[in-house]
Amino acid sequence: MPHDNEGLRGLLPAMNRLSGTLSRGQLFERATAAAGVTLERPAVTILVILDAADRPLRVGEIAQRMQVAGPHATRQIHGLEQRGLVERVADPDDQRARLITLTAAGERLAGRYLRVINGWFADALSGWSDVDRRHLVLLLGRMVDDLSAHLETVTRDARDAGGAGGDHPAE
């Protein structure tokens, strides 16, 4: 089904430029060094996910937000738990289940990292109005959510169809 993509012209090139800018600028490496954080990217990602969450999360939710398999998230969480940065707490809806939450030390570490990153973003966007910055965050978050959901559907549909690609006519 053809779509009118004129309004999205330039989106992919802009996203590629952003990805390249973040990679070449070594954002993660510079931010962890500036914040005095010695954890690897997946561990910091978990701390940031938990910091942004409004509640403790199940391991599966963390894995989904990281876009990784559950065992990968479990290994990372175990390491963070050993460092005293996260802890398991009872799920109030299911006492058999455990949720993951930041400890006070985890909150401090995530806060240091996020202050560095958010400071850089604030400096880079200092010429933008508060309204524009808020709109950017809302629209970018919405785009990521919608694109992730759509790609999950495309992947599931392709898997259900036996892996047939969209460019090949059905026989």
Provide key terms for this protein.
171 residues; mainly alpha; 2 strands; 9% strand; globular
Number of helices: 7
Adjacency order of strands in the biggest sheet: 1-2
Instruction: Give the total of beta strands.
Output: 2
Ends apart, CA distance between termini: 19 Å
N-to-C order of helices and strands: HHHHHEEHH
Query: Main beta sheet: strand number and arrangement?
Result: 2 strands, antiparallel
Radius of gyration: 19 Å
Low-confidence stretches: none
Q: Care to describe what's here?
A:
- The protein has helices at residues 11-24, 27-35, 41-52, 59-66, 70-82, 104-124, 130-160, and strands spanning 86-91, 94-102.
- The protein is mainly α and 171 residues long.
- The protein has a two-stranded antiparallel ribbon with strand order 1-2.
- Helix 2 crosses helix 6 (104-124) and helix 4 (59-66) packs across helix 5 (70-82).
Write the layout of secondary structure elements.
Elements: H1 11-24, H2 27-35, H3 41-52, H4 59-66, H5 70-82, E1 86-91, E2 94-102, H6 104-124, H7 130-160
Antiparallel strand pairs: 1-2
Short account of what is shown:
With 171 residues, the protein is mainly α.
